[in-house]
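Escalated from tier 1: NI-FE active center holo job.
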Amino acid sequence: MRTHVMVDPLTRIEGHLRMEAVVEDGVVVEARSGGTLYRGFEQVLVGRDPLDAVQLTQRFCGVCPTAHAVASSQCLDNAMGIMPPDNGRIIRNLIQGANYIQSHILHFYHLVALDFVRGPEFPPFIPRYEADYRLPKTTSDEIVNHYVQALHIRLKAHEMSAVFSGKMPHCASVVPGGVTVTPTVDKVTTFLWRLKELRDFINNVYLPDVLTIAEVYRDYAEMGAGCKNLLSYGAFDLDNEPAVTKRQRFFAMARFRQGKLEAVDPAKITEDVKYSWYKSASHLPPASGESLPDPTKAPGYTWLKAPRYDNTVFEVGPMARAVIAYTGASNPAHVKAVNEALTQLRLRPENLFSVMGRHLCRAIETKVLADAMADWVLQIKLDQAVAVPHVMPDQAQGYGLWDASRGALGHWISIRNKRIERYQAIVPTTWNASPRDDLGQPGAIEQALAGAPVKDTANPFSVARIVRSFDPCIACAVHLLTPRGNLLQKISVI
Ligand code: NFE
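Tier 2 regenerated the structure:
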């Protein structure tokens, strides 16, 4: 029997996502992922001072503003032909690193844990899908306690970012050429104390909780594999090499395809809009991309475009970063932590391509990154510069490629008469939650849903578990702009 399942909106993610699935004999045979709000930011940026991009693009989202600050600053660094000095590079890494930690803890405890843990019988823990909750009550209660503890811990991570960024969210100190904050002994020690608390939480609470859930829900280490093509732009610069594709990064820039690593050539990235509500031409490279809305366009079903690399679908995010590190042996600490988790759970590297694999990779990279940050903060040289000066060119083009916590983030700018002529951003969730492309190839989440078991179409919790494992952020991918405040759509939240 064929049944049409609609989850709209899918809750406990960032933003508004509609998932539609066709279920045949208890299995998903086809899925569609739809972003139901429009992002008008690209148009808002046109004609403005290019420096505004660093502040305005952070307003895409309150969860990953630091990634937009760094990507847009690197985009302008590239357009102006400048590179930050060591201090600027390190401080940008620390601001971003604190936000990765905050974001990953947020995702696990406040968005996804309740997929696997039965919460208390009062809001915000109900209403919920009645899933197959398998943990003993004592373990569930303990993880619910950690849910509350994680709220305080996330505050510490925000404070850690703010030590160097001025405030959070939407940081003030990241600029083209470096940062504007003056490092002091006080700031370094304030940062280190909070980092110590976070590392204690990651090592003793977060990672163990993820391992506990992974042990009990072992079937989810076999479910939701997706396209198995992985893309990472890399993040956390370790040198000042001007060419981003040659720069050393803590998380490497690479593509994983058919079991092997390949280089990233930014010229091969395009965005299709055949199934997206845009009247712009399809298959444009982002440097000449357009985002002209057409909400009535057929056969459109989403505000997200379909980014592709060389006409191929790619998944981005912590699982991509872990598999790339694992395959290329590029980061020994990362490889060691992945091996330890796989050994403890008696899983194979292939199991990383799964719902549980994504959760494990997210927790593992939180630990590996937090450990590295403890070294990076001590590399700051208090008597040295944090930025180089810049001169705004009359005309220039540039791009910034940088992995946000959710994956590959790209910003592209074109400057004319010292103003923004064109700006395009392709965010991680645009990759993961993309619709079909011009060739009809489903996006990464759509592919991950194919084959998912749905025993009860009124209670499609496996669909929710698969989609949430990607940590989608539709706020980043699409935003609403209605100058007269028109009512566009009524939705009911279950
Ligand atoms: Ni709104 Fe974002 C991240 C970016 S998401 S959270 O991480 O860029 O697609």
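The mean pLDDT is 93.
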